[in-house]
Design brief:
The chain has 209 residues and is of the alpha+beta class. The protein contains 7 helices and 11 strands. 36% of the residues are buried.
């Protein structure tokens, strides 16, 4: 992975594209009153953000990928899926309208960032050990650059838990006016929405902002 300065220069020409569709998110049931809050990722950090840095709303392409990512499911040595005893979870379907998504599942831009798909899914070095030392993992450095550059609303990345899936890491503080994330719930029992507030004139991929 390149240094932060080189990443920021590379991201000036990042090939962002619109995303319109559903992604999935797992939250503990005790957080049902704030289902789209990213405060947990700020406090504890995540794969693409260091603790006490910036918010990331971590989502996945399917319920299966989301469950694997939060370790509610795991794959045994013989390839079987097993569940793990947990406190109650909610599986949320999120409808997204995003204008500026950087797709890192397409390897064509990875060289510009000085990384590879293997590095994006590698579980070493451990983020917990590095963060305890006040250091960042390569993916956290990349996430920080994507957040800081201000021209990316979300990053689509390969899932480290599901080889056939991907994650969509939404940067809520970077959303433009016209971009939004809403929870699908026809019962109206769980209501939450994130609306972009950054005013930028023009159009991105057909989405007027």
């Amino acid at each position: 992975m390149h240094s932060s300065d080189r990443l920021l220069r590379a991201l000036e020409n990042a090939p962002v594209q619109p995303f319109s569709g559903f992604v999935y998110r797992i939250i503990a049931e005790r957080h049902r009153d704030s289902p789209l809050s990213a405060i947990g990722s700020v406090r504890s950090g995540g794969r693409y953000n260091a603790p006490n840095s910036f918010p990331v709303l971590y989502c996945a392409d399917s319920q299966m990928t989301a469950l694997l990512e939060v370790e509610a499911l795991f794959t045994t040595a013989d390839g079987q899926l097993k569940g793990a005893p947990r406190d109650p979870d909610l599986v949320l379907s999120l409808r997204c309208e995003l204008a500026r998504v950087l797709d890192l599942t397409d390897e064509s831009f990875l060289r510009e960032l000085g990384t590879t798909s293997d590095e994006l899914v590698n579980l070493t070095p451990s983020r917990f050990i590095l963060n305890a030392r006040g250091e960042e993992t390569p993916t956290q450095t990349l996430g920080s650059a994507c957040s800081f550059c201000g021209s990316i609303s979300a990053v689509k990345v390969p899932s480290a838990a599901n080889n056939d899936g991907y994650c969509l890491n939404i940067l809520p503080d970077s959303l433009l006016v016209g971009e939004h994330v809403t929870i699908l719930d026809d019962s109206d029992r769980i209501k939450a929405k994130i609306d972009g507030v950054i005013p930028v004139p023009g159009k991105f991929g057909g989405l007027t902002v």
